[in-house]
Amino acid sequence: MKALPKDGFAGLKENGLNDLTSGFLVFLIALPLCLGISMASGFPPIAGIFTAIIGGLVVSPIMGSRVSIKGPAAGLIAIAVAAVADLGQGDAYTGYRLALAVVVATGIIQVLFATFKFGRFVDFFPTSAVHGMLAAIGIIIILKQFPVMLGVKPTAKSPLGLLLELPSILRHANPEISAIGLLSLAVLIAFPFLKHPLLKKLPAQMVVLLLAMALGAYFDLEHTHHYLFLHDDFVIGPDFLVTLPNNMLDGVTLPDFSQVFSATSLKYILMFSLVGSLESLLTVKAVDGLDPYKRKSDTNRDLLAVGLGNTLAGLVGGLPMIAEVVRSGANVNNGAKTRWSNFFHGAFLLAFVALVPGILHLIPLSGLAAMLVFTGYRLASPALFKATAKVGRDQLAIFLITIAVTLAEDLLVGIAAGIVLQLILHLASGAKLSSLFKPQVEIQETGDSVKVILRSTAAFTNILGLQKALKTVPKGKKVDIDLSEIHLIDHSFMELLHDYEHDYQRSGGQVQVTGQEALTSKSEHPLATKRRPKNA
Q1: How far apart are CA 532 and CA 387, in angstroms?
Q2: pTM of the model
Q3: Residues 112-123: pLDDT tens digits?
Q4: Mind listing the domains of the chain with CATH numbers?
């Protein structure tokens, strides 16, 4: 087994070069994404930079994960832009300051979540509802950023309204701005297929940034002017470029707490707290799986660090932060060993923005929008729909209803709809309501063998009880998880057993799941929902 990298200053001495290199490469990815996410969220461009700097320099030493990257994320755009619009009631700056108070309150709530060990509740949410929520976020990002990519200001604000307005958006696309956006998007799509070793070392986002800046200079976006295209008159100029203060400190904005206890603010505090914490913890869990050393993160400590980071970010004018999946994955792939890589990514951002802020003003908004459209596509890719359908029609229904309700209403109502539908399906399959919230589990230990007997219903609603029971199983044993007395076991629970089997075997033990022969599966997928036939 590989020796684990040291932590703290000993880790810096041992792995400093690896972490410095990875931190620099992640900085190249983070810079354009932070700017794009900020503007898509209705915040000033500098807000995302503030958040990433705090996520790197302040959060790194206290976070519970080793190689995740903390910063603004596309997954919170839909909540942030709605918060600014609803709180500001037409006044963008007022809405921004009121939203900052929401970010501060969210950070405090997340600190409380961590204090009361709520990190484990990430597993309570049904897998397909979570995937549906993320896919809906992806669709919202695409719908909101597609007009920006084409240089059009739509009249609609809601996702469904933007969908209906797409024909008009296409008709009024600004050709030169569209050229920047579409070429940027084409590079992002084509980049993974390029085989040249030199190109593989370059972050696609940085290539897009350089291309967009070059095209912006060619089209002279720094100066307002008209041009004709197919007899139509178009205007371009600095409005299509990033706007930043000359001095980074001039971008610091204080929150307005005057409405922090209003119903609207409380709604968005709840949304940021639940969705942000859920997405952050899911990312940490995913990155643990990518870590070549297979280190397990302390989820409650990580949530505490994110909460403290959000509190500070809101106080200076920043976006909310989470553990971000794209940058975290790149961090691992670039050879990061410890928390120092996250620290260095924040340090590079601080140095760049403090020393050469003028360069950022040359970045076209359409290039940043293309990056977000691509990010949205990855969150809502057709492959995700196909993979969900393979698990079973029940999971596809939960996935689709979560997406539909989220697009029609908001994220909280959407994921609630997914949870309710999952409960209805369980009750329709014969599960008793009382069995959905308390697992019936018995653990029998004999020598080197441990038998875990599950009875009645094993569903996402009682998953936390089983986790607690499984933690009592000693390491290094031969564990038999017996499903022969189960009436119903759902997809989320099957995923938990699969992950437990993998983690337990990695620690030196053995796990087998038995007793599935008499159960009928919803599909051929090994982790599909299973139930006992009525006559069995």
Answers
A1: 24
A2: 0.88
A3: 999 998 877 777
A4: 8-374 (no CATH), 383-428 (no CATH), 433-531 (3.30.750.24)
